[in-house]
# Entry
Amino acid sequence: MTFADLTYEQQIAQLTTAAQSILHHYDLADAQVELLSYANNAVFKITASPDAHYVLRMHRPGHKRMEWIFSEIMWLTNVREHSTLQVPRPIATPNGAWLVGAEVEGLESPLPCVLFQWIEGHFYAAADISLDQVYQAATFIAGLHEFSAAFKPPHGFNRPRLDWEGLFGEQSPYNPGEGARIFTADQKVVFAVVEARVQTVFNELDALPHSFGIIHADFLPKNFLFTPSGVAAIDFDDVSWGYYLYDLAPTLLLFKSETRNAELREAWLAGYASVRSLPPRHADYLEAFMAARHLASCRWQAGHLHNPRIREHAAEVIARRTEDLRRFLDTGTL
# Structure
């Protein structure tokens, strides 16, 4: 029986055992392990004492190249050393290793793991976040983009490109591979038309300066939190070369389902513009970026059918998002 054949609970049990088994590399053998999430990767909270907490990310097999993971660490280290932005601090082993391999029963290769310092703070769902907090979070991502615009990649830095090819092409991190079998013929037609519409916008942006750089690529309320010293961002697993507008899209898309959508959107864009100029024409592109995000999400779902919880609901989620994308093609808005 392979790992993919196990139930969700069985997979969690094996991943948790594997996480516990590698903590001795960090001199944390006696720490407590608590699962935080298991979707793309397995993420654990590691508690060494009441005042010492960490986050352990266990990458799923074959998904991230080793140089990509090392480059995420380079990026976070650079941001921490050369800005006041709050981002996770990667932690090496006492021997200086940034990655540790975890052996998991049923998998041929060890899973690469990275340890981060825990950031204490409070998360807010879209329904509960205040307009002032939305404004603050937008100033954070604008500040990150300002840092990105001046960033000089160190030797060996290599992260994916989320241009058209990076989102929808064969080499895309979102390429679902065999998982594409879940798409219906009608869905594939809708996706192809959306891809073409998005490509037109990307081509227009390519002709404009200062529109492309290192982005977070998953900047959602679940990935930014509020600390006593301001906004912090976590989970830079998707950090990529991409259009800055892409970082505005996930949260704006989430706001779509809120009755306060207009006010939330206004606070989001005003907060961003208070730090980094957002030309009027750029705001017109945002619906296309939200559509790109929605389509990338469909591809992500299809690419994660190895996870029993995702596999259970993937067809339903993809069908719902396809209807949203069909509305975008008909009206220009999701």
Remarks:
- Residues 308-331 form the longest helix (24 residues).
